[in-house]
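TEACHING EXERCISE
Course module: macromolecular assemblies
Task: Read the component lines below, then compare them to the predicted structure of the full complex.
Student: A.B.
Group: 4
Components provided:
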Amino acid sequence: QKEVEQNSGPLSVPEGAIASLNCTYSDRVSQSFFWYRQYSGKSPELIMSIYSNGDKEDGRFTAQLNKASQYVSLLIRDSQPSDSATYLCAFQTSYDKVIFGPGTSLSVIP
Amino acid sequence: DAGVIQSPRHEVTEMGQEVTLRCKPISGHNSLFWYRQTMMRGLELLIYFNNNVPIDDSGMPEDRFSAKMPNASFSTLKIQPSEPRDSAVYFCASSWGNNEQFFGPGTRLTVL
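Instructor-supplied answer key:
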């Protein structure tokens, strides 16, 4: 099993809809989870971090974590064309090592 | 703050040549990471340093790759000799402890 798996893309949603991105991870002791956004030709940037079970909301973004199921998701409400990017799920193992998933490409159609 | 600085931004070289990528982390950060990104393999951690000491280099693909961090403000990733399969975007990132990693703009390497 790969360490981090994400739903295969590309994912297309109409403008204004909710985009749902999913991620599963294999490390049961992980405590820190992240969502990064990467625009084409640019470097990844952190948009959300989550450390405890439940939901964490930041503006139009909501991260959901279920450690028992080893599952983390990202919901983007009122999707905008500017949200079109690749979204990378990541989790932290020991020390400062972060493992990234393969990414899901999101396209928001005007 | 200028953020993480990488140089060069683009590098085109021929197979067999030595390539050196450079990174200046954000001042005050104590962890530095080198990543490689390709379409096929995604974003892979090559090596990371904590307080200038290499902590985990298990991601370094082979002996042709080496990395150094002689001080808190500078790191290099060297490939010698380079091969076409090394073509990728190489990112450097830095952080303070377990906090958010900030990525540099990357170096796009093409080995002909």
